[in-house]
Amino acid sequence: MSGDSGKKSRQEWCPAVKEQFFGVEPKSEDPLPAHSQAVAACRGALSDAYRAARVAVVAEEMTRPFDGLLMPSEISDGPSSSPPMRILLMGRTMAGKSTLLAALTGGFAERIGVGAQRTTRDVFAAPALDLPDVEVVDTPGVGAKDGAQDVALAMAEVPGADLVVWVASNDSFQEETAQALRAVAFRGKPVVVALNCRAPLDEELAIEDFLTRPDSVFDQHEGHLRTIRSHLAAAGVRPVTEVLLHAEAARAAQTDDVGAQLRSASRIEALLEVLRRERLERRITRRIVREADEVRAQGLALRAALDGVAVGVREVVSVAGGLRRDQEQRAQRLVEACRQLLEDDIVRLIGQRREWHHGVTDFGAEVGLRWAEEQTSLLADLDSAVKQRVDELLRTLDEASTAAQREWATAVRPQMHVEGLRDFRGLWKRRVAGSVVGTGGALVAAVAGAKIGALAGLSSGPLGAVVGVVVGGIVGALSRSLRMKAQSLFKSKAAILEENRELLRAGIATILEELQAQVLPEVDGTIRDVRRQLTGGFEVQGEKGAAASAVADVVGRLEEAVEAAISTLDLQTVRCLLHADGRARLAASAERATRLPGVFAAVQVRDSASTEAWLFPPSSPEPLTFGRARSHYPGAGAATYVLGLTDQVPVAVRTRANATVVITEAAAPEMVLAAWSEALSHHLGTMVEITRPDAEE
């Protein structure tokens, strides 16, 4: 909704009444110095937030991969001096932008294409020939096949422009071009439509025919203009004006013998007159909006990046925490199962020797040698059983870890708080969110790719050391116990050799029972050590997650600081626009502002100023709508703002504690109603929905 949006109708009824009602208007200040300070302060706050966020993110291992998401949002320095008014030429490839650049600047004909796709591949600026302090910027064409990079280059220049001249040609209008036009409209810059009506001028006869009947070239193009209007209207934008011209004739007029006639016939003066008027009447306000939009666009990009980092880190921490708890539970269950199996093996293998005496028939000196052999066999069996169980534990730990990783790998679904159409950047923020999903997924994949030991803070070395303690402890205990008991049995108590088998059974049983009683607690103690080491490793990972969560909190606070800096800039921008319009009283009354660049700015003013603002709305390149301070029901003031946007009284207003619905019959596109709703929701701090009567049926 560029332009004055029909608001002058309320001013024209009796301008003199304003002074009678509200007093003499105070003298306004020069808004440019104050606005330059506001822009510099905002840029400084954004730079501080950017640097602080990067320091916090790179300080922790788990958040370090997110630094790549922040890096592209670095805040650039402001211009060293105030640039001239910038007129941006945009449009479809081969529409005649470079030709028009040559006509407006008096040179640079070498940039003109020869009918090939994607002739201009860069951004080029030159001073206008007949417009002092005006710079004309040529951009790559949009709508060409495989021209995404060209579109990105062109769109990147929009925030730094005062005015966009959309150069169209009198031929087909492709969908790719329509998308680019709507994107320009969404970015809120005023648009002048320049329809380049082509006619051949390559021969003297063609030039003579054009000069004889120039109006015939500009006939029957209403269909093209209607198509362009419809795409702009989809974003609630009306062009500043529409101009039909012949760009090549205007360029050729600079060197041709019939230059004056060609220039007149080309209608380039109609475009120049629009640009002169913009320079004289809107130069200051356009500059205020441009300078605000340049730093504001960077702030919005930084805010989106910070939001992506905070949400992404929290999601990764949540997934990593769930994965850690899952793996810890699985690991502990497996360790406990290993303990039980080891105990069963010890009891079983020792129990098998309890009947060993049945095979003894010679109770002479040979029995000691036979028991030594059995002892060696028992030790070997126990050693083999322990190694088998430990190997199985390592394998099952690895399998359980892999299974958990596979299950949790699909759990990375950051709940992004995409803010709809606020600033018409909802789609762009969703793309940022997608990059966050990719970054978070890569991080989780890296974590999930590690083994359980690494996730628990243990490398294969410490885990192997734990296993070594298990094996070495059990075998060592067996060796010492059996050697001691064997020596006692066969040397100190030689009488047993001369007794019967029952006495031998009783001695062996005692040895084995004491051995089992000694070994089982050692196994339990070693398993407890394994548990403690695993738990300690998992706790380390938990601490890392807590540290990463703290980083997310820091980033979230920095996002709030960026939001506050943007809000402060919005308020200062509105105040400067009011001063530029000679409305110092309204500027002093402004308390809060929320801009939706190019669409409107919602301005909260003191009660005494709200009536003046509605009866005598300021003339601004960006429509301003006013309301009072928020009441007990924040959405109660939504109707006032809607009334300021449409001049139509809402059909109905339904206000509740947490939501407000405003029903209007205003002739605004659905996308614009959605944008109004989003911006007013943010401005009033409550859900606001602006809808049509038929939407309620």
Describe the main β-sheet briefly: 6 strands, mixed
Percent helix among the residues? Answer: 55-70%
The total strand number stands at 12
Radius of gyration: 40 Å
What order do the strands of the largest sheet run in, or round the barrel if closed? 2-3-1-4-5-6
- Uncertain segments are 1-8, 113-119, 413-474, 489-494
Strand content: 5-15%
Q: Assign an overall shape.
A: elongated
Would you tell me the overall average pLDDT? 78
User: How many domains make up the coordinates?
Assistant: 3
**Structural class estimated from helices and strands:** alpha/beta
Supply the number of helical segments. 22
The CA-CA distance between the termini, in Å, is 27 Å
Output the keywords.
alpha/beta; Rossmann fold; six-stranded mixed sheet; three-stranded mixed sheet; elongated; disordered N terminus
What does this protein structure show overall?
The chain is an alpha/beta fold and 697 residues long. The protein has three domains: 137 residues, no CATH class; 210 residues, P-loop containing nucleotide triphosphate hydrolases (Rossmann fold), CATH 3.40.50; 241 residues, no CATH class. The chain is 60% helix and 9% strand. A six-stranded mixed β-sheet has the order 2-3-1-4-5-6, with helices on both faces. Helix 22 links the parallel strand 11 and strand 12. Helix 3 packs antiparallel against helix 18 and helix 13 runs antiparallel to helix 16.
How do the helices and strands line up, and which of them pair or pack?
Layout lengths: L7 H4 L5 H6 L8 H28 L8 H4 L14 E7 L5 H9 L18 E4 L6 E5 L9 H9 L6 E7 L5 H12 L4 E6 L7 H9 L9 H12 L7 E5 L1 H6 L6 H8 L1 H85 L13 H43 L17 H23 L3 H4 L4 H33 L2 H4 L2 H80 L3 H6 E7 L3 E6 L1 H9 L8 E4 L10 H9 L5 E4 L3 E5 L6 H15 L2 E5 L6
